[in-house]
Structure prediction request, 246 residues.
Amino acid sequence: MSATEAFDPVSSARATLRSTGTATLATLGADGSPFATLVTVALTADLSPVMHLSDLAVHTKNLKRDPRASLLFVAPGGETGNPLAGNRITLTGTIARAEDEPTLRRYGWRHVPSGNHPPLADFNYYRMTVTGSHLVAGFGRIHQIPPEALLVSLEGADDLMAGEAMIVDHMNDDHADAIANYATRLLGLPFGAWRMTGCDPEGADLAAPGRTARLPFGDRAATVAEAGAALKAFARQARLAEQPAA
Prediction:
């Protein structure tokens, strides 16, 4: 972002959430004391965080007793200098068991792309209901963003959400070259084992080992056909980008 561009806290907050697959989970102990641990996290289509937690873990026992919790996401940016250089956002809310297939698929696409994830008897999926957020995106850029502004609206997009698995699996299974072109030729990112990890009304999520990316749609997509048309247009654009100028 240049110095002349207006800062958009919602876009910055969403980008920070999508930039990492880990977060610091803070729960409350039996005596009310805070307890923080590192967890792997995925995001549902509306950006609600999803975790795969062991029943034996202290944080899970805390959540079963008191579902109130917070999650701290830190974007890359402070690895080689100031550790506070990366954007960061704290989500607050409640966390409860989740068993619906769309939520479980989202975690699998993000963290178990091979699908070879053996069931673990003492692990279950948990999703946060977000009630508030606190974004720190640099000096003087501190914003409280309400959930209705932060989360992606899925209203009117039932057809797309019902077909999300078909889109993602089809793209990953049959069009890995197109996904790689999205990342490298359209977004200017390094080559890697890029795959699609989600598709919502506002765009598609991509990931490669150690990296994430967002491919935003020009217009909101409410149906499978509309999302498919956008992805095909991106593929054509990427193919043209690789051709030498006449």
The chain is about 30% helix and 30% strand. The chain has two domains: 1-152, 154-241. Helices lie at 9-18, 58-65, 101-111, 147-150, 158-162, 164-174, 176-186, 224-242.
